[in-house]
Amino acid sequence: MSAVASPVTVFMAYANEDKRYRKTLARALAIMRRDGLVSSWYDGEIIEGTEWRPEIFKHLREAQLILLLVSPSRLLKNQPLQTGK
Predict the structure, then answer these.
(1) What is the pLDDT of residues 55-74, one digit of tens each?
(2) What is the pTM of this model?
């Protein structure tokens, strides 16, 4: 039997209008998460009162895989993700 590797850390980025797509993706990853193959994170997991920008960039830096959910809503937003410190 082979040793179990650490889960792949996944960051999910999406437009607020596209929450349904993020939820669909989370359901698709559920079995891999259950089996310890994947751990995923998205901005909805930010604890109230936490400064959101540093928290997002912390998880971006830690992610091994960044999934950008790009839809017409995201493309039409005039708000590109900005670089953090």
Answers:
(1) 999 999 999 999 988 888 77
(2) 0.77
